[in-house]
């Protein structure tokens, strides 16, 4: 009997048409699942930072040019739409968030293990294939983790939550280049390649252990019915009744994510090249340390953005930060030495809150379309596969300094969404409705049954859950 109950609690399938108390979780109730999911943000920040370092490392050890080295970014981010619009989206809609977390971690660990023989054989194409598998894993994690952090807890603080969680992503991007500067560039080629193998073996072991932790943890599941209830409670769900193809604010957010992510990845991917080409007496090891410093600024910017969001509306902070990305990336095209490098540093600081804030703002008021819509916004990350090759071509022909014009153009494309959410009422009003709601801010009067369902988030079945679900369904 006890074993049967145990495995029933471990079930990964949660009906999406069932209303639970998960849409009304308070900060205290959502603290554990948020902390667990935040570990995932660190993981892909580390993987992303490692990728930028490996870009330059493989240029050195395998003798490939900048354009070909961008194949790493193309494989990594090209996998994202396959996950966010394909297999991960299907699992999310038919099972739940926890199932996607476990699936993504499995793919991540599998790709890391397969990377070892590819490195041993010095096959850049094989390593790109492994990065593609890792990208599918991380794309799956992003498909679930970004919307989960956004909707798990009081909706008025969703931008604050996701930016705070993404700050740990920034910490991962700092640690990876520092590790790379000592492990990849300070050894001969053979030793450096062996070090890469050990790094990916350690990654595989860690992510498999984390997948087990998610399997044995009981975290709240948030269904489409919960999100429809939340949209109605905030009076922002008018668009929720429209067919999915009419969610044009969502598609604009996905376009902005495409442009912004492409610009961010291009700058980070060629940062070491920019440093070594535009600043005197700068080698790859020093450039990697500069990259770590700029990523530290990126992480600090996330914490700073969270602090500002306590005093200003998130959409205003977003507009200011993205505008500063344009203002400071433009001089980096023509300036050299410390001046040009400092412009890139400041640009990366202001990049910090843009990605998670686009996710949070784009999901406002989607209601029953939340899970499906989040896949489109995360799918916009494919810009990270498209823009770096363009910058690589420009860098090979005209130098990495001049190639900064490429991310500048894409920053401007993303800026159109920042302007819309601040100045177009059809965008602004649903967003502001969430900022004024008290759902989840204080505990509502509930009976013991409701509290139990809120804690388990639909992980158990039984009479108690059915009563609580029926009661909330009447509210909807």
Automatic annotation (TrEMBL):
Cell membrane found in the keyword field: yes
Cell membrane in keyword set: yes
GO cellular component, one term: plasma membrane
Molecular functions per Gene Ontology: transmembrane transporter activity
Keywords from the UniProt entry: Cell membrane, Membrane, Transmembrane, Transmembrane helix
Localization per record: Cell inner membrane
SUPFAM superfamilies named in the record: MFS general substrate transporter (SSF103473)
Chief location bin: membrane
Matching InterPro entries: MFS, MFS_trans_sf, MFS_TsgA-like
Membrane topology: Multi-pass membrane protein
Gene3D superfamilies: MFS general substrate transporter like domains (1.20.1250.20)
Pfam families: MFS_1 (PF07690)
Segments passing through the bilayer: 31-51, 71-92, 99-118, 162-185, 197-217, 250-272, 317-334, 340-363, 375-395, 401-424
Name of the featured protein: Major facilitator superfamily domain-containing protein
Organism, scientific name: Dichotomopilus funicola
Origin organism lineage: Eukaryota, Fungi, Dikarya, Ascomycota, Pezizomycotina
